Amino acid sequence: MEEIYTKNSKIYAGLYIFFIFCAAMGDYKPLNVALGGLPKVLSAGGFGVAFIYVMWSGNFKNVKAIFHFFVMYLSIIAGIILWSVVLWILDFQTIGYIMKGTSKMSFQFLDLLVVIGAGYMFEEKAAKYTFIGLAAGNLLIIALGAVTTGVGGAIHDLIANITSFGASDVIENSKFIRAIEIHDITFVMGVYVIYFIFFCFGEKRRFIYAGLALFLFMAGLKRIAFMGMIMAMVFAAFTSWLNPKAKRRWLTIVSILIVVFCYYYLSIIHSGAFTAFLEEHEIELMGREKIYDFISNFYTISPSYRGRGYEFCVELLRSMHGTKDQVVDITAVHNDILKMYVELGFWGFLLWITGYYVYQTHWFITRCGEKTAACFMTINLYMLISYLTDNTMFYYWSSMVLRIVPMAFFFDPVKEMPLKIKDEDEMTKFERKLYAKREKAAAQQREGWLNEYSDFGDE
User: Fold this and answer.
1) Each residue's pLDDT tens digit, 73-108
2) Is the dihedral of CA 104, 110, 114, 115 positive or negative?
3) 3-state secondary structure 74-120
4) Which of 399, 360, 373, 376 is nearest to 130 (CA)?
5) How is the chain split into domains, by residue range?
6) Can you tell me the distance from the alpha carbon of 292 to that of 315, in angstroms, rounded to the nearest whole number?
7) Structure pTM?
């Protein structure tokens, strides 16, 4: 058969975008209430198309490189499950409890299959096509939400939400804002703002995509995500000016500091200093502080604390829902760092967080280069801020995009944007110096990328 280059095929791209769009529509509240996470299974169509193409064509051009990504990402998921199984057995948990915990992680495996399917077919365009599908779904959800209030009322409420910086009373009093409040896709749009501005240099329409992502991000504004995005942008800007050797050191140091910070963060939560600080400065966390104080009765910050197994916190809060022991009217911890520590224990949490940040950062540096590692760290630093007060760590779309963006960037041979060529006499001294530096780097990257990619595939 005549080979079809899937990366540039409108048919394959259209099919993939369609499956992502259909799955994203599952986040529309009426559908989400009725079907839960079931529509996300439709995203498996993206992997199905890739699988059928591989079997039909016998084209294994990217399989070896993609397999390395698959094993690396899977090791983090498998580690959580295996460690939890040990804890469940030690605590004599029921089969039903164990099945609930493992079923939650099954969506992460599905998520990973979609990622590797997209990476195989579309290489550096995988992240962009995923964005188009999600953005289309988000825009349609906004349009459907506007039907309930009218276009004028929707615009008024949207402006009020943005100008009030996502104030709780504005959200509660707006039927439109509540209808378009899709947390997962909103967090994802923050990732894409960062990606298109700082990393997607080979995309001609990247600023248009960045603007669309920013609009969708602001439409579903989350204050913690906004702070995380600003922090990540500063980090990306600073990291981009470091030379390769300094960049590698910087990324390694940051990954280790994240581990240290998380243990410090846990200690101040357990001591009560965190909630005391919030009360002193009148910071409203909508009942989260009550949950943090309550959960502190179930763990200690000590090497002897072994953990309770994945999903313990959720099951605990659900069992209390509607009883006299209920803490607040929510059944999620809204603090992924705390949740993972309580469930995995001191050593399990250490293995997990070291694996996620230190090991993966080192893997990207050594396998894909420091620029891809910088992409990985930047978007994960953005999401880390949300983990401190929210339950976004295993959101389906967030997990997918955090995996697909660095992988797509690895395949992108244009990893540095040169200055626009113009007469040297028109350049300032600073522009001439910067242009010479970028031209030299671009030449090295064009030569080194093929070797880097070739070495990866041969391992």
Assistant:
1) 999 999 988 898 888 888 766 676 677 777 777 889
2) positive
3) HHHHHHHHHHHHHHHHHCCCCHHHHHHHHHHHHHHHHHHHHHHHHHH
4) 399
5) 424-458
6) 15
7) 0.87
